Amino acid sequence: MNTIILGIESSCDDTSAAVLCDGFILSNVIASQKVHEAYGGVVPELASRAHQQNIIPVVHEAMHQAGINVKDINAVAFTRGPGLTGSLLVGTSFAKGFAIANQIPLIDVNHLQAHVLANFIKEPEMQNRQPSFPFLTLLVSGGNSQIILVSDYLKMEIIGQTIDDAAGEAFDKCAKVMGLPYPGGPVIDKLAKNGNPNRFTFAKPNIPDFNYSFSGLKTSFLYFLRDQLKENTDFINKNINDLAASLQKTIVDILLDKLKKAAKQTGIKQIAIGGGVSANSGLQKAIYEEAEKADWEVFIPRIGYSLDNAGMVAVTGYYKYLAGDFVGLDALTFARTTLD
Which residues, 6+ apart, have CB-to-CB distance to 206 below 8 Å? Predict the structure, then answer.
């Protein structure tokens, strides 16, 4: 008998629903919110309102694309946190109502864990490479920068994380200083391809163990631009590609230095990447170059599963379903948490 999981993701500004059957993705529908671009970042109140408008059409479309009906679904999995409280409440409330109406189990999913398990999403008629345990995951997004030791589908330990800002936030905030649109990470990645990554040098933190820090880099970048603009008000426009390339190289170097240290100390050569920043071409290039030197085997979900999406929620829900790990209707959302 097939096991079919409906996944719901609403942690930030994307409303997503996915259908998974025995580990294979049947549909993964995402409704993005363009309204935040005018504000240079996600506005929580606007995000939660948009989720309310999108959730039912998105779920309907996911089921339609998967070719299933409500009676086929064995359980509904939802993102419980971390994320924006208002946004999480929309997905959580829908999932609870869906579970009650159809008398099926409810599965809560940690957003961070879901990003890691995105590497286990299988697609019909695809090669579907998957890491073997144990492996290391570099999780990088707008809200998280972490190195995670993964011992099993549901057993993970954060061995390094940012003590302040995340890598994705550094990309976005520095892009904003340069007058680039939100989200800034993809724009910087595009500009960097035509720039000299060694043109400018910015501060790199000296943080112990496997932890990260990006606040100093943001300050260094801001002060550098301030000083240059005093001498030439058109400095940013004339050097935009080199600025983007140099900033990207600095962030990638910071991320990779700690990952290399973790891999060497643990002896693990199975390396996965997760989170939205994993789509950055500079980071991917650096990871593959290091893999050649260190004999790593690298796993990167394709971009549709790297960004926030319900496919990763559904696959996490699938493994929790197999383990009989369900949650009651009294489950509350949480804005911040670890993998514990």
Answer: none
pLDDT digits (tens, 9 = 90+) for 115-171: 999 999 999 988 889 999 999 999 998 788 999 999 999 999 999 999 999 999 999
Residue 26 lies in a domain: yes
Q: 94 lies in which domain range? A: 4-121+305-322
Q: Which amino acid, 3?
A: T
Helices of type H across 103-234 = 111-117, 167-177, 184-192, 215-231
Residues 200 and 280 in one domain: yes
Strands 106-110 and 135-140: unpaired
E-assigned strand segments in 257-337: 270-274, 297-299
CA–CA dist 160, 148 (Å, integer): 7
Q: Confirm whether 128 is domain-assigned.
A: no
pLDDT in tens, 55-83: 999 999 999 999 999 999 999 999 999 99
68 shares its domain with 204: no
Residue 182 lies in a domain: yes
Helix (H) / strand (E) element for 287: namely helix 281-294
Please, are residues 191 and 200 in contact by the beta-carbon 8 Å criterion?
Answer: no
Co-location of 139 and 287 in the same domain: yes
Residue where the block lists tokens 């409303």: 15
Question: Is 299 strand, coil or helix?
Answer: strand
Dihedral of the alpha carbons of 229, 182, 119, 63, in degrees to the nearest 10: -170
The answer on pLDDT for 340 being more than 80 is no
Residue 224 shares a structural domain with residue 291: yes
Cα separation, 2 vs 50, whole angstroms: 33
**pLDDT of amino acid 35:** 55
Tell me the CATH number at 117: 3.30.420.40
Q: How far apart are CA 265 and CA 87, in angstroms?
A: 39
Pairing of strands 75-81, 106-110: parallel
Distance (Å, rounded) from C-alpha 279 to C-alpha 274?
9
Residues 249 and 289: beta-carbon distance below 8 Å:
no
